[in-house]
Amino acid sequence: MMKKAITNFFVVVMAIATGLLILCMCFSLVKNSRRTVVTAHRDLSELGNIAIRISACNSINHPQTLGLFAMEKYVEEQSLGKIEVNIYPNGQLGSEEMSLEQVQSGTLEMCTASLAPITVYQNKFQVMDIPFLFGSYEEAWLVLDSYVGEELMATLEEVNMKGLAWMENGFRHTTTASKPIASISDFSGVKLRTMAAPMHILNFQTIGANPTPVPFSELYMALSQKIVDGQENPIANVWDLNMYEVQKALTLTGHIYDTMPLIANLDWWNSLPAEYQTIIIKGALIGQNYSRFCNYEREDLLKELLQEKGMTVLDPDDSVKEEMRAATQGVVTEAVRESIGGEYVDAFFAGMEEVLSDVTKGVN
Ligand code: EAX
To answer: Which whole number is the average pLDDT over 222-231?
Structure first.
């Protein structure tokens, strides 16, 4: 009896001791994890200084550039000044095409570029050149911010680039030197400046226009010298390039959603300390969201300002857009399938459908 009581006593003491030990271990883990957070800053101060040059083709007032400035502020502050961000707008370091080439080869750390020039380096991005792919900004953001966008962005690693965020450019609309595009037949014979991208060219050929690639830096001149009759760009660019001086009408065709991924050289990116990568990625996302917000908030105001400057702004009937979609979407999709493989296109569409339908799951 006595022996049993002593054994029980020892079992209880052992249990209490084990419990205390576990508690102590937990406490020390919590303490250690707190310590890790504290030492993160100490680690930062031990890391070397770096400087990042970012090439951008738009002006300092473009939503995309404003997004980059927001990123610069965040990254410089959070890195306690160890990371210096230098933004070069207005194509100072070269066109989007040239900047992509430099980022790929590693002579430049980062740039932003429209989807069209990116397709030259990674043709899978042509899936985004399909006209009327997204019905609204919200739809486009939802898809790009999901695994669908992440997988597309990751394909840049195949060509030695690292995509960090989707800086905003916006839905592309059409401007013309004389009358607005009131029906699809108004595209007939119009010499329309496009980007040098096969799917954009095909898109406008399909509706009877005469697409003519001109570099962005020469666009205003090409319009003012009447080398082309019209062009297509987001509203922010129509305003930024003072196109109201050389174009009479803006038709809100919204044929393609365009974004300007922020892209880094992959080897350079991989050589960065993880702490810096974390800060830069967060900064890039802050910049992305800020650029989206600015663009979205400004579009109505810019439409008004463009009208004040004498432009006719026409929001065409849904039937006009539907006619454009019906004429172009199938043709371009087929060409994209041929170029990048039907499997990739099917997977992208299936992902898009899943992501968009997930939003209403359980409530419809
Ligand atoms: O904001 O149209 C163009 O060439 C531009 O690259 C683009 O819209 C940049």
So the answer is: 98
335 CA to centre of ligand 1 in angstroms: 22
List, for residues 81-105, the tens digit of each pLDDT value: 999 999 999 999 999 999 999 999 9
Q: How far apart are CA 310 and CA 308, in angstroms?
A: 5
Q: What's the gap in Å between 233 CA and the centre of ligand 1?
A: 7
Please state the pTM of the whole predicted model.
0.87
Give the model confidence (pLDDT) of 118-163 as tens digits: 999 999 999 999 999 999 999 999 999 999 999 999 999 999 999 9
- Looking from the CA of residue 237, the nearest atom of ligand 1 is 1
The Cα 286–Cα 169 span in angstroms is 16
* Ligand 1 contact via 57 beta carbon (within 6 Å): yes
Domains of the chain: 2-357 (3.40.190.170)
Q: Is the CB of 169 within 6 Å of ligand 1?
A: yes
Distance 111 CA to ligand 1 centre (A): 14
Q: How many CB atoms lie within 10 A of CB 221?
A: 11
Q: Could you read off the pLDDT of 314-361 as tens digits, one per residue?
A: 999 899 999 999 999 999 999 999 999 999 999 999 999 999 998 888
349-360: pLDDT as tens digits? 999 999 999 888
Atom of ligand 1 at shortest range from CA of 57 = 9
DSSP E strands in 60-120: the ranges are 83-88, 110-112
What are phi and psi for residue 89, nearest 5 degrees? -80, -175
* Closest atom, ligand 1, to C-alpha of 64: 1
Cβ–ligand 1 contact at 233 (below 6 Å): yes
